[in-house]
Each structure stands twice: as C-alpha cells, then as structure tokens.
Amino acid sequence: MADTPEAVKKSIKTYIFIGCLLFAFTGITVLVASWEALDFGRHGFDTADAVIGLLIALFKASCVAAIFMHLNHEKKSVYWIFGGSLVFCAAMFALIGLAKSDPIDDPYFYRAGDSKITPPSLSNAVEKP
Amino acid sequence: MEIPYVITPRKDTGLFNSKIAIWLFLASEVMLFGGLFSGYVFLRLGADYPWPERTLPVLPGLINTFVLIGSSVTVVFAWAALKMRNWNRFVLFMGITIGCALLFMVLKGIEYNVKFHHQAVRLKDYTIVEGHLGKMKEDDKPVLNFKGKEIEANVIRFEAGAVTFNTVRFHRPWVDEIILQGEHHESTITLAEDIKAITKEGNEAELIAKAGDALSVELLEKIQDVHGKARAHNGAMRTAALRKEWSETRSENPSKRGWQLASDVNIDAAALQPKLLTELASVSFKVEPATEFHFAPRDVQEAETQARLRDDTMFTGKLLESPMVFHDVDAIDFRHLAMRAVERGQDPIAAVENSWLLKNHKWARDAWEWNKEQTAKKEQELLKKHGVDEETGLPKKEPTAKERYRIGWKEFIAMSDGAERGGEKIKVSEEFKGPDYEGRREAHTFPHMEVPRDQVSFASKFTPSWNTYYAIYFTVTGLHGLHVIGGALVLAYYLFFGRKMFESNPEWLANRVEIGGLFWHFVDLVWIFAFPIFYLM
Q1: Which of B172, B276, B487, B511 lies 20 to 30 A from B263 at CA?
Q2: B209 - beta bridge partners?
Q3: What Å distances lie between residue B288 and A122, B65, B167, B175, B307, CA to CA?
C-alpha cells in the first residue's frame, strides 16, 4: 500500500485508470443487457446474460477491492478476516443450491414410470403458439 | 491520555487499530449483504409468478452507478491529498464525494416516490393492470378526508343505517372520519338507545348517555372509561371469589392435591352477580338517513350486508358498487395469466383472449392486437437474422414472454404515436418519473378504466407488499441507502471538523479518512452488484 507521499502521488494514475475502467465496464454491462448485438444466449434476458453481467460485476468489485481498498497489498490479518466472510457468503449461496436440489417441491419427481412428463413452462408454450 | 496505535501499526496485526476494526465491520457487512443477495436468488428461483425482470428504469440506476463510482475515485483522491498534506485538494475532493452522496439519495428518492405512487392490481384471472388511480369526486370537486387530503378512487363504499363501535379498540381518527362523512352526506349519527350502567357496587344503574346523543370521540371515551373501570372491578371480584373458593376447598380437603380439587372449585356466579358493575363492550349508533361511508380496502372487510373496519367498528346496511378507477392505465401484463394457463395445459394465447379485460374493454383488445402484430414482426426479424436451429427445427431466437404478454407504458406511447415498438420518443425526464400523463391526455395514450371490485384479487402500490421482488428490492436498496447516508455523515464530519486535526496531526486524519474511505468503497461495491441484479436482470 502506498504510504509515503511520493508513492501516493505515483498511485494517482492507477486510481484514475481504475475509475475509467469501472465507468467503461458499467456501460458494457448495460449494453449486454439492452443492446441486441451483445445479447448472448436466447433473445432477451437468460442465464448467459446473468452470468456475463455478474462476471463483469465481480471484475468491477475486484478492481474496487484490490486498488481502491488496497487489498492488492494488505496485511495477512485483513485477508483472513475478509476471506473468512467470503467463505460464509459462499456457504449461504451453497445452501440455496441444497434447497433447490431437494425434490420435495417437484410434483413430477415421485411419478414413477412417467419420465416423459416435463413440467409446464411459459417458454415451452410460446415455442409453438 | 494518548490513544495507542492510531498512527503506528501494532506489531501483532501489522495494522493501526481502527483499520482492523473497520475490516472486521466490513466482514460482517459482507455476510449481511451476502445473505440478502442469496435470499434474492432463492426467492427468484422459487417464484410462482413471472419474475418482473428489467422492470425498473435503467437510466436512474445507471446514473447512480456512475455517481457512486465517481465518488469512490474522489474519496481516494481526498485521502491522497491528505497524505500529500494538501488541505485544499482534500476539501475539494471530499466535497465532491459528499455531493455525489446527496445526488445518489435524491435520485433514489425520486425512484422510490414514483414507485409509491404507482398502482397495480392483479385481477381474478391473473391479468395485471398497472397505472395511476383517479381521485374521488362529487359534483366535479375532490372529496377530502378528515385530514383535508384528496381520496384515491379505490375505496369500499357501503350504505349504512347503523354503526357499532368496540369500546376498547375504536380508532380515534376513524371515528373522526365517520363523523365527517356523516356530516358530508347530511346524516346524523346518534346513539341508538340509552346507555345505562351500574358504576358503583350496590348502586342502581345510572344513565351514562342518552339515546339521540351525537357520535363523538368524547362520548366513546366516556363509555370506554365506564367499561374499563367495570372490567377492572369485575376482574378483581372474580379473582377474589375464586381465591376464596380455593381456600375453602383446600381447608375442607387438606389431604388432596390441587389438581384433584380443581373440578370442585367453582365461583358462585349468582352470589357474585349483584356485586358486578356493567361492562359496555360495544355501543351502537343509528345513521339517519342511511348514508354512504367509504374506507380504504386495506382497512375494511366487506360483505353484502355488513362491513367491518380493522378496529372492529361494524357497519350494517348494504355494499355499494366500489370499483377501482384508473385514470391512466400504463401497463397490462398477461404473463401470469399465460403461465397459469400453461400449468393447466391450456393455450396461453386463447386464455389471454378470453380474459375479463379483453372481453370487456375495446382499448385492451386493440392494444393486444397491436402487440401481437409487433411480436409477429419481431419473430420474423429474429428468424431472418439468426435462422433456425438445425437439430430442433425451431427458431434460434424468439420474442420473450415479456414481449409477447406485457404491454408497458412505452408500448402504449408507441401505439399512440403510430410508431413501431421501440420507436417511441421518450423524454429523459420520463425515464425518471414515468410517462407525462397530463401531456398525453388529449391523445388518450393511457386509457381510463374501472375495475369492478369482484374482479380484484390483490391490489397494491409498488411497495414491498406487491411481490417478493419489490420486498427484497426495497430491503437491499433501502439498507444500502442508509449506508450511503451514514458514510456521507462520517466523511462530512472529517470535511467540516477535520481542519484542527490536520494542523495538529495530519497523519491521524489521513488514517481516519482512509477508514471512512474503506467503508465508502464497500458501499460502492454493494451497488456494483445491486445495479445489475435489480435493474438489468
């Protein structure tokens, strides 16, 4: 971390560069969501758009954390504290995975021998109007 | 006393104390917002209704993102200025940071305000209608409530000849409102019969209020007072009688346990009766001539011959027509209806065309036909551009369910202007505050509509109660907004009261600003995720 006035002065350009990068990637996120030429996957919003949008957000957040919050060269104790909270955070998302994989809510799960049946969905219906 | 480790780092952690403290705090914040975001994902994956994706206007959210990123840069510049011992630059950059915080909150306030004034209703067949309600009018003049405010045309109307109050629970503002509504319709609300009560043990019943006394909060409070004292007295008498009975029963049966005696312990009600005072749990008034009362749907439970307010005030009479009156319908959404139709194995298009809205409103049929035409054009356009999947034989890209089944305010404007979908002219201010309803009144862009009460399944403003999307949107953005305010206050303190410290111990101030800055970056970090999740997905 830049501590001396000289080192801080040198870092200014990096801060400006990261600021511009964040502005640019915010614009890109909006374009991915709204501009048809950058529409990945199906037309409109779908998993591909969500993944790309979140990856960009993750990249932007990493830039803020690494450069503005000086996590790129911090003391070990900070990494342990912050890393620990991220592990808890990941665990909360993993719990959703467990909850969603529980078949108790799936009315088709217990209908043995009826494997051809698929749950109705709006997208299935609109494919063949 | 000198505070240790505010400038020099501790040997064990390698950090000055407030830095380790802020990182511990930020770690807890990561878990808090992580929990909320994971809750959002859980609700979205499990939603049993079409998720309102991309429902918020993007421009205000985008500007707010730029504002927060900009403030993140300026706060780090402010810290750098202190490190270089340049007070004026610090003031400049910290001032900009706080200005950004204010701008962020103003934009958020506008966004919230628009949502809180936007009405939505889900009909019995799952059609959603959105827009702005009209105001109640009589002889072309707005009807005002007892606070002098205009009343939205979304009330339950009830013609009552009698009204009964619960003397414990009656809500004073509603009593005022009932009096005002009675006066407005030139009806008198008077006590139906004499109220007599025994107020002292051994006395005869005395007159508390006479039949014909006008309804007032003071009268109800007087009756409430008599009732309260009687309840307290009677309760004490019953307890004393029960204790006496227990004591006698125990002394007669010393060898038995309490549970063995319980069935034998009974109060002598007849002996107790002369000692009791009169309780007045409810009091009835008559309305002459019977007249109309109206209350917000959330405050009243209505039936054909009775209506009950949440404070147990009961009206007796008959229910009147109580439609929800939209002055400006700015969206109709059939996605939920189509989803239900698919679940039942029905054709969603046929279900939409058989909906109550399309059967009863020509403008809705016209809008639906226009939207179908636009969707067909989009379908052709996508087919031409992306072709067909060779394996399935189906088009690679197709219009979304939102394009097929939702007609929003931009589509209404395009239709009204004779433009294609997406070709409408929208002013920047409209992106923030929604469409210019007044300006488009002559062109009849946004239809007027009455929704009969028996068609209403659920109605709400765009508040947390409308659906789980808005519930978590307001939770996360509201909590984030509080962080913005808190962070801005701390940074403003450094700006306005930091000069003295700068002159005596500039490194300490720089460290303090670094701590405030770390929190500020975290606030930015949360928004970096909140923006795409709530506005773009």
Answers
A1: B276
A2: B195
A3: 55, 60, 22, 17, 18
Q: Which two tokens stand for residue B410?
A: 């931009």
Q: Average of pLDDT values for B390-413?
A: 91
CB contact under 8 A, B34 and A88: yes
Residues B338/A122, Cβ–Cβ less than 8 Å: yes
3-state secondary structure of A16: helix
Contacts of A34 in chain B (CB under 8 A): 58, 536
Q: Is A31 on the interface with B (CB under 8 A)?
A: no
The structure tokens listed for B310 are 């949440």
Nearest-angstrom CA–CA distance, A14 and A118: 53
From the list A3, A77, A88, which residue is nearest B15 (CB)?
Answer: A77
CA distance B176 to B148: 12
Which of B50, B83, B343 minimises the CB distance to A8? B83
pTM of the model: 0.85
- pLDDT tens for residues B467-523? 999 999 999 999 999 999 999 999 999 999 999 999 999 999 999 999 999 999 999
- Using CB atoms, pick whichever of B30, B42, B532 lies closest to residue A85: B30
State the Cα–Cα distance between residues B73 and B77, nearest whole angstrom: 6
Considering only the beta carbons, identify the residue of A81, A88, A123 that sits closest to B23.
Answer: A81
Min Cα distance A13 → chain B (Å) is 11
Each residue of B81-139: pLDDT tens digit? 999 999 999 999 999 999 999 999 999 999 999 999 999 999 999 999 999 998 888 88
**CA gap B44, B470 in Å, rounded:** 11
**CA distance to A61, A66, B41, B464, per residue, from B527 (Å):** 9, 17, 16, 20
pLDDT, position A109: 63
Q: Does A82 touch chain B (CB under 8 A)?
A: yes
Residue B133's beta-bridge partner residues? B326
**Residues ≥6 apart with Cβ < 8 Å to B197:** B205, B206, B208, B226, B230, B277, B278, B280
In whole angstroms, give the CA distance from residue B272 to residue A7.
Answer: 91
Q: What is the dihedral of CA B349, B353, B354, B356, to 10 degrees?
A: 130
Ramachandran angles phi, psi of B122, nearest 5°: -100, 120
Mean pLDDT in residue range B143-165: 91
C-alpha B315: how far from chain center:
27
Residue B450 to residue B131: CA distance in whole angstroms: 12
Q: B432: how many CB neighbours lie within 10 A of its CB?
A: 15
Q: Which residues, given as ranges, of chain A have pLDDT below 50? A: 126-129
Give the DSSP letter of residue B7. S
Q: Which residues of B264-289 are buried (b: 16+ CB within 10 A; e: fewer)?
A: eeeeeeeeeeeeebbbbebbebbbee
Are the C-beta atoms of A67 and A19 separated by less than 8 Å?
Answer: no
- Pick among B28, B38, B515 to test the A interface (most A CBs inside 10 A): B38
Those residues with Cβ within 8 angstroms of residue A34's Cβ, 6 or more apart along the chain or in another chain? B58, B536
Task: Tally A–B CB contacts below 8 A.
Answer: 178
Mean pLDDT of B274-295: 95
Contact state of B345 with A120 under an 8 Å Cβ cutoff: yes
Residue type, position B443, single letter: A
User: CA-CA distances (angstroms) from residue B102 to B1, B85, B217, B484?
Assistant: 37, 27, 44, 9
Please give the Cα distance from B275 to A77 (Å, whole number): 75
State residue B517's pLDDT score: 96
Which of B488, B494, B508, B516 minimizes the C-alpha distance to B90? Answer: B494
